[in-house]
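Priority: medium. Attachment 1 of 2:
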């Protein structure tokens, strides 16, 4: 399932619009572990990668642990950045743990 979303809140990240999809989190690019009921997101690689230090260690990405607010159809949720969404995710796209996408869509 893909939904259209808008994200905001992080100054370094800015406001974006894109597609929202869901993923089943595990050990994320930020070096933390999450599950389907953990309120986390994965940012698209083009949004995530520029904040990874020159060492290439994504665990030290400056966006890790930051919060984003995701909007859709008058609803919003806050989530923590925990992972990187590889292509085909594009600028502005975000992968959400299932608990978030259900909150935004009302689907179970």
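Attachment 2 of 2:
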């Amino acid at each position: 399932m893909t939904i259209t979303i808008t994200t905001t809140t992080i100054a370094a990240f800015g406001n974006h619009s894109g597609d929202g999809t869901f993923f089943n989190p595990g050990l994320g690019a930020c070096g933390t572990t999450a599950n389907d009921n953990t309120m986390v997101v994965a940012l698209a690689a083009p949004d995530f990668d520029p904040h990874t230090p020159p060492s290439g260690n994504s665990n030290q990405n400056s966006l890790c642990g930051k919060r984003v607010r995701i909007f859709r159809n008058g609803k919003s949720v806050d989530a923590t950045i925990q992972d990187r969404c590889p292509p085909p995710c594009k600028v502005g796209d975000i992968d959400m743990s299932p608990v978030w996408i259900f909150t935004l869509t009302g689907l179970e």
